[in-house]
Amino acid sequence: MEHIKNFYSVEMETQNGLIVIEGPVTPEQLSKYTFHEGLTSFRPPEQQKKALVEIAELEEGRIFISRKESLVVGYVTYLYPDPLERWSEDKIENMIELGAIEIIPSYRGCGVGKRLLEVSFIDDHMEDYLVITTEYYWHWDLKGSGLNVWEYRKMMERLMSSVGFEPYATDDPEITSHPANCLMARIGKRVNEDTLERFDRLRFKNRFMY
Q1: N-acetyltransferase domain spans which residues (predicted)?
Q2: Separation between Cα atoms, residue 120 and residue 25, nearest integer Å
Q3: What are the domain boundaries of the chain?
Q4: Helix axes 149-161 and 112-120, enclosed angle (nearest 10)
Q5: pLDDT band at 209; cut points 50, 70, 90
Q6: 207 φ, ψ to 5°?
Q7: Are 180 and 153 in contact (CB under 8 A)?
């Protein structure tokens, strides 16, 4: 499958001034930017930048960023599922994963995350993909947000549903290890039955055989 990457860029006014939301950014573009010190949900900012540059180098990798001038204040990543997770056990060519979304605290609550997702799905080629995302409560900023685990889950569902993601049941042990964890997926308009059947088989691996 050919992974076509058309570039999009929009400006957004926020309480902290004008920001640019753009992508998919190239590794070269990303290398020129500085990552805000508040981008620490997954790893320290410099290491996170290095990881995103590596994702941008992948054929299927798509990185969208929110930046104030040359300072990155948020990002979202898309790539094939992690080889260590069950979602990669069947190499479904048109199934990619929203691997991470992160916005620094001072830009939360003003629609930056939602706009970042919207821009990442402007491209009509995204209708060829089944996009999954796995939500684990241990990645959530419960302390910084002041939300409890259920409020945060509701907020994430609202955010993801704004671009067409829906919750899907699964028996994946990591997801079922806590009731707030969830699997969500966005099924593009041109995704065929074969892809959906293969996705269903990945979702439920422990069905009883009669």
Answers
A1: 20-189
A2: 11
A3: 8-203
A4: 40
A5: very low
A6: -65, 140
A7: yes
